[in-house]
């Protein structure tokens, strides 16, 4: 069932559709929470904030203006960042010191240019190592998945079944864990 159909049902008063949408988009919230790191905070805190943002998105979405997935992602991101910014009181001081893992985290964490350059090289080597492990289909699935696509959306865009997308994601997870494990045992790349 498409989001458009779900929102039509929600508009007719079928409140259980909101619960379904919360579950459907929860993986997107978790993916977004994984891209942020709160020093002294918990990943679950970010997920909770993201779910609040998702709930607000469901309540305020106007069908026809944009795709719900895009709208929801914006609402979730804003809710998470607002929570980090609002935690400026002393008791929440560590929450203000967040690092986005989806951005270049090594640039402001490292003190000297040499360390920055080494960290950048290590990151590039890690990406190359991951890239070598993936098939072209897996690369495309990973790209769409990281952009917040649901299994259904990825399958539709690629002209594949949801099951083949799920299988590709499971393979991706295994390969990424394998790369991380090899990096951990080798230390710095």
Model description:
- The structure is a single chain.
- α9 crosses α10 (162-186).
- The protein is built from 10 helices and 2 strands; from the N terminus they run ααβαααβααααα.
- The longest helix has 25 residues, at 162-186.
- The chain is mainly alpha-helical.
- The model is unreliable at 88-111 (pLDDT under 50).
- Helices cover 73% and strands 3% of the residues.
- The protein is globular.
Task: Describe what is shown at a glance.
It contains ten helices and two strands; from the N terminus they run ααβαααβααααα. It has 189 residues and is mostly helical.
Features:
Rna Polymerase Sigma Factor, Chain: A, 2 strands, mainly alpha, 73% helix, Arc Repressor Mutant, subunit A, 189 residues, 2 domains, globular
Task: Give the helices and strands, then pairings.
Layout: H1 3-11, H2 16-34, E1 36-38, H3 43-60, H4 68-86, H5 93-96, E2 98-100, H6 106-109, H7 113-133, H8 136-146, H9 151-158, H10 162-186
Helix pairs in contact: 1-2, 2-3, 2-4, 3-4, 7-10, 8-10, 9-10
């Amino acid at each position: 069932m498409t989001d458009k159909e779900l929102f039509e049902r929600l508009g007719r008063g079928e409140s259980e559709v909101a619960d379904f949408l919360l579950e459907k988009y929860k993986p997107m919230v978790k993916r977004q929470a994984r891209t942020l790191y709160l020093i002294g905070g918990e990943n679950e805190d970010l997920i909770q904030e993201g779910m609040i943002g998702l709930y607000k998105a469901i309540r305020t979405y106007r069908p026809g203006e944009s795709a719900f997935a895009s709208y929801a992602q914006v609402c979730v991101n804003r809710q998470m960042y607002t929570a980090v910014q609002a935690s400026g009181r002393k008791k929440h001081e560590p929450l203000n010191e967040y690092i986005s893992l989806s951005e270049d985290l090594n640039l402001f964490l490292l003190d000297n240019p040499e360390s920055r350059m080494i960290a950048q090289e290590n990151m590039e080597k890690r990406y190359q190592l991951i890239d070598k492990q993936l098939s072209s289909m897996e690369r495309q699935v990973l790209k769409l998945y990281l952009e917040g696509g649901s299994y259904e959306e990825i399958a539709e865009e690629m002209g594949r079944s949801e099951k083949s997308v799920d299988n590709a994601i499971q393979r991706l997870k295994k390969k990424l864990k394998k790369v991380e494990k090899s990096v951990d045992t080798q230390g710095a790349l």
